[in-house]
Each structure stands twice: as structure tokens, then as C-alpha cells.
Specification:
Strand order of the largest sheet: 7-6-14-13-12
Strand content: 5-15%
Shape: elongated
Distance between the termini: 134 Å
Length: 722
């Protein structure tokens, strides 16, 4: 066999014995040949790459050269595939959007939403429709009108393509810092996409669709067209849709006549239209207006001087014209019902917590209370906050102002609940003693309304007789901060001044919020959030961790029940006494302007207010009078219990020997007597004459209170309580 020239293991002498061939590893010479060939080809490739001259092929040294196949990289192929898939998806998306979201729909106003509220048994109690404005052209509006919306809602509107990554990142960072959802990153285009085409569900799928529709709108419409459609459809509260309807409803003018402050107020409503509607929350709307004006200055739309010149705006006092279906309860709960239902665009039914039987009982009780010119408010709720009856005034058609939810009046001695709660928390008990003597704190000298002082008495006695000086001493003893904390814990959100006078009820509060505070004692848990909707949506994880209820320690709870029961059994609230266990407190403000009674029995918590809308004095009015009797009468009807039996009249023994005698010596019973009841007093004299006059109760209470139904104003100062 011919020797292999690439066999380096062979000696120069050419050894070729069979033994030496057998000792070699099989096929070793072939591997060596191939290795040498690969090295030669590698060197050749490097010379060609470096530009060296091509070496001629020498068939004596190596096998013929061959072209090794080069492996193609797959990146380009995948790019082409991705582009193809993207084009197909884009075509599908365009077809889908053309079918489900035609551009013409973004110009149409939303379908007039109709929402029906039902009682807890499904009975309809109110129905509302919407006010739809005419479409507007953003290009023809004054610059400050559109700039107000751009400054607060989407400052980069004219530079993004429908979705603003910077805005989303800014909102996410702000929300992370605040521990909850405080800002949104949606652009005006996204808001138009949601309002015109989608619902308000906060799901990832809806947000993806919203972004796709936003890109679709940006591709087919100009920026001015998008802004025009947005301003024509957006919700402004009070059931008004579109800037044309809102400008007329709140200011009585067209959008092109709006001044800077009015445009800023409307732009501010978009964030929370139900909560900030200026007809029910003018203070909140004005604060939001100031925020928008500041944003306009920051964005360069206004100079600092122009921003400072903008003043808080006034709005018309008109309300939506649905009075035939209107009730105080419906007006209160409608914004929340609409928010729960989302941006209502079709017929929607929302169930509330109102109990028709209890509502009728409240209306009957108020109608027969003999208020004459005075106004009244009543709130009835379950201990968990479900409002089951509400009276906001004597006649909704004459005055839709809701005195149960909108009025802020001084609570008088009903505020002492928080003073005594702070005292019980500090370790005192109802049997602890306090001085019921005149006291001066700084330049303030409180006085008891009846001018009488009992000396050293127990806290139970002080609470029952509603001693002002005792409450002032307790406030000073436990500290004003402790009293304020007790009020805040039980849900009072209105401003409370840090001064000793708060113990007598000098700060203002709504009847609804005050009643919810007493409900916290009834439930043994705080705070209690008043609610009027049957369907309560679950809180998010953050709200669940930070907004949970807190149990009232059993000892403190029992002590508070002890005090509240003493007020009804032996104190100023005796006229509210029931045949079942009842707990409550009276309240009367200075000059008898406001009178209240708030309390609970079984599973019902009720607050009653009586007074004049103009905050004028009511001689003879007290919390232990008309409000306590309204509370008692309503409770008896609501709970189905009998009235407290009147004590039997005292019978005086008569000595026959002391009686006058007739001519025959027989004893003669003298004529004369008195009959009380039915609102009058019948008296017979010894000579047989009969006289009729007002009952003693009416004479003691004085003339009925007056009222001229003007909206209430807060009145500072307080120095007395009944």
C-alpha cells in the first residue's frame, strides 16, 4: 500500500513493517490529514481576507479546495416575520375599530342617561335624566377657555400622539409616593375615547382598548377636532354633559362668554364632578378653581398678575328641573349612585338603602309636630351607617335645600358626647366627680343655662343635666386635643377650633355626620360612614389596610351607654323616653337658635334638628322639647312600641270633717277642678264657672319658633344649653 504523505509518524527510513502498522491507532493518519488540510485552508482564507496574492493550487500537497457553506444569521428573517405579523394585526385593529368605534360616534353627545333610584324593597323613589349641551368648536372658543382644560388635564396635548408616557410616569410616581391613586395619566384623547366608546371599568383590557382608540382618533382627527369632541361630551356634575350645558347651568351664559375664573371652575369639575358641583359644594369648587388658575400660570397661559386677578366665582342657584321626582334622600344619594354606575349612558337602576315604611313614618311624625314656621331635619340610620329615612325640610317643593346633609349648624350639647368619651378614655368613669360651680378659663366664663349649680356631682349627673361648667372643666382637664381626637375618631370631619369652648358645641357640623358619630357608639365601632346605596363595592387593599374600623373597648362603651341612658331617664332628654332601652343627648345653641336630639334604641340611630334657616332666635325652643318629642314619636312608630305610660295623677285624701256642710249638716264636695290635654287646659271654678286656655306645656315652652326659609349661615359663639 502506498504510504500516506501526511503521516508524520513514519520515520525517514520508511519503516513499513506490519507490526508498526498494527501498532498505530486506526484512522489516525486520516484525522491528521484532515487537520492539516483545515489549517491550510484557514491560512489561505486569512491571506485572501488580508489582500494577499492568491497561491496557486498544488495538487501534490493537498486535496482540491472546496467552498465551505456559510451559515446565514436568522435576525433578518425574524425582523421580516415580525413586520408581517404587525401589518396583519394593524389591519385587523383598523377593521375592528372602524366597526366598533366609528369616528362619527365621538361627535355625537352621549345618550341621555336616565337613572332610577329604588328603595330597599325595589320600589322606585326617584328618576333623573341628563342635560345635554350642544357641540362646540374649540377653535372658536376664547383661548383661556381651552387653556384652562389643557393646563389641568393635559398640558402636552398638542405634542403627544394620544398617549403621554411622561404623564403616565409622573402619575405613577405621585401615586407611589402617596400610597394610593391620587393622579391619573390619561390624556384628553384617552378621556374622549373612554367617554365616547367605553365604560368606566378599571381593567387592563379597557385601558388597552382606550389606548388603541386614542391612537385611532389621533390618526384621523386634528387636535382641535379631538378637543372639540371632548368639551362637547365631558361630564360636569349636576347631570350636565358638555361645556355648553355646564356654562348655562352654572353661570347662565354660553361658553364663548365665560371669563377666566368661570372657565377654570368648569375645568376643575372634570376631576370629581359629582363631589365638586358648585351648586352643592361651592367651597370645594372654588378651591379647585384656584388650583386650575395656578396650573394656567405654571403653564404660561396666564401671567402671575393675571392669575392673582382671578376671583372666586359665583354660580346660579338653579337646580335640575326634576322636582316632581325629587326627594331630599334622592338628591343626596344621586351623585354617588351615578358614580357607582359609571358614566351613565343608558337606562340604569340603582338600589338604595331607603326603607319606605320608615320614610313614611318620619314624614307623618314631622307633619304632626306642630312646627308652624320652623324648619326641621331628621336622619335615621342603622348602626352600620345605612340611611333608612331622611327629612331635609318640611316641603321639598318649596325648599329643596337639604338641612340634614348640606346645613352646617352648631350642635350644642350633643357635642358633649366627645368630651365625655375623651374623659372615659383618660380613665374617668361615670361615678367620677366634677365641680358644678362657676369657672373662668382665660377670658371665657361659661354658665349653666338655668343659672343653678349643684356643687360636687358625678359625671353621670353632670351629663344628665347637661352642665356647661362641668363640660368646660372636663375639656380643660383632659385637654382640647383629646376632645378633638375623639370627635375625629367618630367621623367628624368639619373644622374644629383648638379652644376650650368646643366642649359646648361651638364648631359646626351636619346632622348626618353627627348622627353617624352616635351610630359609632351604638355599633361599638368607629368610624361609621353614612351610606345610601345597597351595593357597597369592596375596598382596595390599601383602603382596607388604612381605613378599617376600630373597636371601642367594652369598658368605655358600657360607660358611654351609662351616660347616654341617664340623659333620657333622669336628665334633659326625659321627653324622649321609651318603653325600651334608649340612649341619647339633647343640644340647644345660644339664644335658642338650634335645638337637637340625637340618640338610638335597638338597631335604629336617629338625629333630629329644629330651627330657622336664617339662624334667628326661637324663644322657648330646646333640645329636650320639640326635637325630643319628634324623636320619641318616630321611634315608637318605627320600632312598633307602645308609648310610655303617663304617671297616675296624685290622689289627695279628703277629711270629711274638714269639708263644708249644707243646711242639713251633710258634707259637700267643693266644685272646681282642672283638665289638661289635647293642647288646651279646661278649668272649673268652685262657683261653677268654666275657663279654657292653652296647656301648661305650651305656656312653659313659649311661642313657636319662626322661620323665613333663607339658606343658613354659620353662627359663632355659644354660651348656653338646655
Amino acid at each position: 500500500m502506498r504510504p500516506d504523505p501526511f503521516d508524520t509518524n513514519r520515520s525517514s527510513a520508511g519503516r513499513s513493517s506490519a507490526n508498526s502498522q498494527d501498532d498505530r491507532e486506526p484512522y489516525a493518519y486520516e484525522r491528521e490529514r484532515l487537520s492539516t488540510e483545515r489549517e491550510r485552508l484557514r491560512q489561505k482564507y486569512e491571506r485572501e481576507r488580508d489582500g494577499d496574492a492568491f497561491e496557486p493550487y498544488d495538487d501534490r500537497d493537498a486535496a482540491p479546495p472546496y467552498a465551505a457553506p456559510r451559515r446565514q444569521r436568522p435576525i433578518g428573517r425574524w425582523i421580516l416575520r415580525g413586520l408581517g405579523i404587525g401589518i396583519v394585526l394593524l389591519v385587523i385593529a383598523i377593521i375592528w375599530l372602524a366597526i366598533t368605534a366609528p369616528l362619527s360616534k365621538s361627535l355625537q353627545p352621549p345618550t341621555p342617561p336616565s337613572i332610577t333610584l329604588t328603595a330597599d324593597d325595589g320600589t322606585p323613589i326617584a328618576r333623573r335624566g341628563a342635560i345635554i349641551g350642544k357641540p362646540v368648536d374649540a377653535a372658536t372658543l376664547p383661548p383661556h377657555v381651552t387653556q384652562a382644560f389643557l393646563a389641568i388635564e393635559d398640558r402636552r396635548f398638542y405634542s403627544h400622539w394620544g398617549v403621554d408616557p411622561r404623564g403616565i410616569a409622573r402619575a405613577a410616581w405621585a401615586n407611589m409616593g402617596s400610597g394610593g391613586v391620587r393622579q391619573g395619566g390619561s390624556t384628553i384623547t384617552q378621556q374622549l375615547a373612554k367617554n365616547a366608546f367605553l365604560d368606566s371599568d378599571r381593567t387592563a383590557t379597557r385601558k388597552i382598548r382606550e389606548a388603541m382608540i386614542a391612537f385611532w382618533l389621533e390618526a384621523w382627527l386634528s387636535k382641535d377636532e379631538i378637543l372639540s369632541r371632548y368639551l362637547s361630551n365631558v361630564y360636569f356634575g349636576d347631570n350636565t354633559y358638555g361645556i355648553s350645558a355646564a356654562a348655562k347651568h352654572y353661570f347662565g351664559r354660553t361658553p364663548d362668554k365665560l371669563n377666566v375664573g368661570q372657565a377654570a371652575m368648569l375645568a376643575g369639575l372634570v376631576k370629581a364632578p359629582s363631589r365638586l358641583a358648585p351648586t352643592s359644594n361651592l367651597e370645594g369648587a372654588r378651591k379647585r378653581e384656584a388650583v386650575v388658575v395656578g396650573a394656567m400660570v405654571d403653564a404660561g397661559f396666564l401671567t402671575k398678575a393675571e392669575g392673582d386677578a382671578v376671583r372666586p366665582q359665583r354660580v346660579l342657584g338653579s337646580r335640575p328641573s326634576q322636582l316632581p321626582n325629587g326627594t331630599y334622600f334622592a338628591d343626596w344619594i344621586l351623585p354617588e349612585a351615578r358614580d357607582q354606575a359609571g358614566e351613565v349612558k343608558t337606562e340604569t337602576t340603582v338600589q338604595t338603602t331607603l326603607d319606605p315604611r320608615l320614610q313614611r313614618a318620619a314624614e307623618r311624625t314631622v307633619a304632626r309636630a306642630g312646627l308652624r314656621q320652623a324648619q326641621v331635619a331628621l336622619v335615621a340610620m342603622r348602626p352600620d351607617g345605612r340611611v333608612v329615612a331622611m327629612i331635609g325640610g318640611k316641603d321639598y317643593r318649596k325648599s329643596p335645600f337639604n338641612r340634614a346633609t348640606q346645613a352646617r349648624r352648631q350642635p350644642g350639647s350633643t357635642f358633649k358626647l366627645f368630651v365625655y368619651l375623651a374623659a372615659m378614655r383618660s380613665g374617668l368613669t361615670p361615678d367620677s366627680t366634677i365641680e358644678d360651680r362657676p369657672v373662668t378659663i382665660g377670658d371665657w366664663t361659661p354658665k349653666n343655662s338655668d343659672g343653678r349649680y349643684q356643687g360636687t356631682i358625678t359625671l353621670r349627673q353632670a351629663f344628665a343635666r347637661s352642665s356647661n361648667v362641668a363640660a368646660a372643666r372636663l375639656t380643660q382637664q383632659v385637654g382640647v386635643k383629646a376632645v378633638i381626637k375623639a370627635a375625629r375618631d367618630l367621623g367628624i370631619s368639619t373644622p374644629i377650633p383648638s379652644e376650650a369652648t368646643i366642649g359646648l358645641g361651638t364648631s359646626t357640623v351636619s346632622l348626618l355626620e353627627l348622627t353617624a358619630a352616635y351610630a359609632a357608639i351604638a355599633r361599638e365601632q368607629y368610624p361609621v360612614q353614612p351610606r345610601g346605596l345597597a351595593d357597597v363595592r369592596e375596598k382596595g387593599w390599601y383602603q382596607s389596610l388604612t381605613g378599617g374600623a376600630t373597636e371601642i373597648p367594652s369598658k368605655i362603651h358600657d360607660e358611654m351607654l351609662d351616660l347616654l341612658a341617664a340623659s333620657i331617664r333622669n336628665g334633659t332628654g326625659r321627653q324622649a323616653n321609651l318603653t325600651v332601652d334608649a340612649f341619647g343627648k339633647t343640644g340647644t345653641t345660644s339664644d335658642n337658635k338650634d335645638a337637637l336630639f340625637v340618640g338610638f334604641a335597638r338597631d335604629l340611630v336617629v338625629g333630629v334638628w329644629v330651627g330657622n334657616d336664617d339662624n334667628s332666635s326661637n324663644p322657648g325652643l330646646s333640645g329636650g322639647g320639640i326635637p325630643a318629642r319628634i324623636w320619641r314619636d318616630f321611634m315608637q312608630s318605627a320600632l312598633g312600641i307602645a308609648p310610655v305610660a303617663a304617671p297616675p295623677p296624685a290622689v289627695e285624701e279628703v277629711d270629711p270633717d274638714a269639708l263644708p256642710a249644707d243646711e242639713e249638716g251633710n258634707a259637700v264636695l267643693p266644685l272646681g277642678g282642672e283638665i289638661e290635654g289635647m293642647g288646651f287646659n279646661l278649668k272649673m271654678g268652685e262657683d261653677g264657672t268654666i275657663s279654657v286656655g292653652p296647656s301648661r306645656r305650651d305656656r312653659e315652652e313659649g311661642p313657636p319658633p319662626r322661620d323665613d326659609r333663607r339658606p343658613p349661615e354659620d353662627e359663632p359663639g355659644y354660651d348656653g344649653e338646655q
